[in-house]
Design brief:
Blueprint lengths: L7 E3 L10 E4 L2 E4 L10 E2 L12 H10 L7 E3 L9 H15 L4 E6 L3 H15 L7 H13 L4 E6 L11 H4 L17 E4 L1
Parallel strand pairs: 1-3, 4-6, 5-8, 6-7, 7-8
Antiparallel strand pairs: 2-3
Helix pairs in contact: 3-4
Length: 193
């Protein structure tokens, strides 16, 4: 429409479709086109506005975990209480701001129970059948994450690495509690431990 800017207004969060135009006398509303596919984000904590900025660490994570395709992985390590979770949280929200299409998934990996509970939550968001049992559910969620166009997976408090062992005995099936096989490995995403 060729109306002056003062007569045009954007309207969001309405029940009208994309690119709809609404004419109300001399006031015209335009609904911008929105992507039909929105990124799924499962982050259990709100953005911490009081976090101490660690730009050096965030820049290093950006270098190690590029926003382009390719399977990359990084780990934050340090003493308990040193701020690893806050750095990961800051990185997750910065990644959301920088890339609207990137899905972000947060998994508490301090025990098998929290791992499974968070995978169930992610599965609900991704439309995975909630009737699946433990290993089928975990496998379906892993596949659903790998099917996303772009994703970041954060495993918080993965202190007991025995849960994620990859040695030969585990691969041969001698231990049933290995969760590493349910960690997404596709080239469309990155993993932060």
């Amino acid at each position: 429409m060729d109306e002056p800017k003062s007569h045009q207004r954007d309207v969001t969060r309405s029940r009208f479709g994309d690119n709809a135009r609404i004419n109300m006398g001399d006031v015209h509303y335009h609904l911008p086109h929105r992507s039909t596919r929105s990124a799924v984000r499962v982050i259990p904590y709100p953005c911490n506005e009081d976090v101490v900025p660690r730009r050096d660490l965030i820049d290093r994570l950006d270098a190690i975990l590029p926003h382009t395709s390719g399977s990359h992985s990084a780990a934050l390590w340090g003493l308990g209480g040193s701020g690893k979770t806050q750095i990961a949280l800051d990185y997750a929200y910065r990644r959301c701001d920088a890339d609207d299409g990137c899905c972000v998934f947060w998994v508490h990996a301090d025990s098998e129970a929290t791992f499974i509970a968070d995978y169930k939550t992610i599965g609900r968001k991704l439309g995975v059948d909630k009737r699946l049992d433990r290993s089928d559910l975990l496998d379906a969620v892993r596949s659903a994450i790998e099917g996303q166009q772009k994703w970041l997976m954060i495993f918080d408090n993965a202190d007991d690495l025995r849960m994620f062992r990859t040695d030969k005995k585990i691969r041969e099936g001698e231990a049933s509690d290995n969760l590493y096989k349910f960690v997404p490995q596709a080239s469309t995403g990155t993993t932060l431990w």
